[in-house]
Design a protein that fits this description.
3% strand; two-stranded antiparallel sheet; 144 residues; 2 strands
């Protein structure tokens, strides 16, 4: 893995920690993968949590999260990061509707703003109006 920045890890952790209690549970992991259009079995989720759960409390706190995040990236992470960088033209760490519109305008006819909004909506897991790299990689890797 190219090495996630502290900001990226914090952004990703917030996506997973749905109840904001500072611990990612098996259910929260499965729920997020489901929200991005994927499917993760109980066995897969337990295995991933177990890999990173140093204190064996059946949950992942922020100090353990980097290991889980690395395991979720798997193969092809460099190519996905490269695609994200192409879309994130201002290097802010987020893809905005304007950036998506610029990409779509280059090769699309029709209502470009609606298409850009639809693309962002598909990728914007936390519904804040922009797409972070953690959201992007989760959708790219797990959406069925």
């Amino acid at each position: 893995m190219a090495g996630a920045s502290e900001a990226e890890l914090k952004e990703a952790f917030k996506l997973f920690d749905a109840d904001g209690d500072g611990v990612i549970t098996i259910d929260e992991l499965k729920t997020l993968i489901s929200r991005v259009g994927g499917d993760m079995s109980e066995v897969e989720a337990k295995a991933l949590i177990g890999q990173a759960d140093k204190d064996q409390n059946k949950g992942i706190d922020f100090s353990e999260f980097a290991k889980l995040w690395e395991a979720l990236h798997g193969e092809g992470e460099a190519a996905i990061r490269k695609e994200f960088s192409k879309l994130d033209s201002d290097n802010s760490g987020f893809i905005t509707k304007d950036e998506m519109l610029a990409v779509i305008a280059a090769g699309f006819t029709g209502d470009k703003m609606d298409e850009a909004k639809a693309a962002i909506d598909k990728l914007d897991v936390d519904k804040d109006g922009k797409v972070s790299y953690p959201e992007f990689i989760l959708v790219m890797k797990y959406k069925k």
